[in-house]
Amino acid sequence: MKAAALRGALSDRARAGLVFVVSSVVTGDAPSTKAGRKAIETVVADAGRRVLAVVGRGDDVAWLSLRNLPNVHLIWPDQLNTYDVLVNDAVVFTREALDAFLDGPIAVPSKASVAKAIAGEADAEESGPYGPQSHAPLADGSQPAGFPVKGNSDSMLYHVPGSSFYARTEAEVWFASAEAAEAAGFQLPPSQRKEADK
Q: Is a pLDDT exceeding 60 seen at residue 106?
């Protein structure tokens, strides 16, 4: 679930045009906060946006150049997580960091699908964390428009509006319909399955 949620969050940012890849942050061997700020502002036009910068573990020059920028949260590729993607407005990878992330130990369903999503070329069937009619929660945890069905990835159960557990269920994934939830392997709670069989 964690890998699927991360992929979904990155896909959402990519579809909004808010995932960027730069060859490097600074040219040369000397760290420069000024050059780091310019590199971020070149790709993220709105200077007030919160930026998640992902740099390679050995890229000390980039790390030192970005660490003092107040609107930049800096992490290594193996630290990339759904929360940091969602609480920041844009994600900037260095090419080295993106390659390390895609080659890393994170169990994403498809290296190619993640690369396509970051490039803004996600296939329709790869559009959500559990298929084309699924959606990760919005940054504030709320329901995305057009996705009324709540899914719980631990129990693999889904809840439709008006059902007994709907209001108290915190959705980890949202679906456009009950059919989409079932196609992704989710089921109604056992008590509701019995009612549906009557």
A: no
Give the Cα separation of 78 and 76 in Å (integer): 6
Q: How far apart are CA 132 and CA 155, in angstroms?
A: 21
Domains in the chain: ranges and CATH: 2-125 (3.40.1370.10), 134-197 (no CATH)
Counts of helices then strands in the chain (DSSP H, E): 8, 8
Residue written as tokens 């930049």? 72
Per residue in 121-162, pLDDT tens? 444 344 577 877 888 888 777 888 889 999 988 788 999 999
Contact by Cβ (8 Å): 92, 79: no
The pTM of the full predicted model, rounded to 2 decimals, is 0.55
pLDDT one-digit tens code per residue, 36-55: 999 999 888 776 789 999 99
Do 135 and 128 contact (CB within 8 A), yes or no?
yes
Q: Which residues is 54 bridged to in the sheet?
A: 75, 93
Residues 54 and 97: their CA atoms lie apart, in Å, by 6
